[in-house]
Amino acid sequence: MLASALGVTNQSVSEVIRNGRGSKRIAEAIAKVIQKDLVEVFPHYKKTDCRDKKIAELKEMLGVG
Predict the structure, then answer these.
(1) Do the Cβ atoms of 6 and 23 come closer than 8 Å?
(2) CB under 8 Å, gap of 24 or more: what pairs does 53-59 form?
(3) Which helix (H) or strand (E) holds 45?
(4) How far are the Cα atoms of 2, 18, 32, 54 from residue 47, in angstroms, in the given order?
(5) How many domains does the chain have?
(6) Using an 8 Å Cβ cutoff, are 29 and 16 in contact?
(7) Domain carrying residue 7
(8) pTM of the full predicted structure?
(9) pLDDT tens sequence across 9-62
(10) What is the C-alpha to C-alpha distance for residues 14 and 27, in angstroms, rounded to an integer?
């Protein structure tokens, strides 16, 4: 059902569940459905979030963007 709701294949959802990697959109949907934080279910996304935060801080510091 989740795959249909997202407009993706069952294989895509299964791949994210099995490997913990792939589509962040699918990973976010899985976390939301099981009522958990994305990073709690897929810890490797914490690195991405930290990186994005640091980039935003640098842009602000440099007056870019």
Answers:
(1) no
(2) none
(3) helix 45-62
(4) 26, 20, 19, 11
(5) 1
(6) no
(7) 2-62
(8) 0.70
(9) 999 999 999 988 789 999 999 999 999 999 999 988 877 667 888 889 999 999
(10) 10
